[in-house]
Amino acid sequence: MAEDKAKKSDEPKKSLKDEILDEMTAELDEEVHESETEMDQVMAQRDEFEDKYLRAAAEISNMNNRFKKEREQLVKYDGQKLATAVLPVLDNLERALQTDVSGDAADSLKKGVEMVVTHLQQALKENGIEEIASDDTAFDPTIHQAVQTVPADDAHPANTVVQVLQKGYRLKDRVLRPAMVVVAN
Description:
By secondary structure, this protein is an alpha+beta fold. It has two domains: 16-76; 80-184, Roll (Nucleotide Exchange Factor Grpe, Chain A, domain 2), CATH 2.30.22.10. It has four helices and six strands. The protein has a three-stranded antiparallel sheet. A three-stranded mixed sheet has the order 2-6-3, with no helix packed on it. A hairpin with a 2-residue loop joins strand 4 and strand 5. Belongs to the GrpE family. It comes from Lacticaseibacillus brantae DSM 23927.
């Protein structure tokens, strides 16, 4: 023990000021370390929030693009339902025009029906609805519906439309109703 006292006496005795300074330095070092830890946590939270924000912004952008496309589709094919409802009426009027009539009253009536058909066809055309050309064309299952086949001959080679039983129509690039046709086989 005498040696311990001798060692302690050999060490310079710290003044109160030095002890307080050492203690304050240790506390400050501890606070700085805690602050760095807290700062790391805050930075991690910030990065997480930034990631969530970027993902949400991307999702909103995707939704806006999807809604824009849907609106464009609605505008592009506006009137499709009305057109499909009107096409059978046009068919019936065209069939009425194919009947033979006699007498002045019947001729007048036929002329009136012709005018209605012409106006209806013009209204459809103005709204982007067009007839699918099918006479003497190659059979295309995307725009034709084969309801009957006949043997191919010189005038009608195989896989060509021989006769149109019901006209087909399309709205821009969408088929509203395929043409019902007889196909040479």
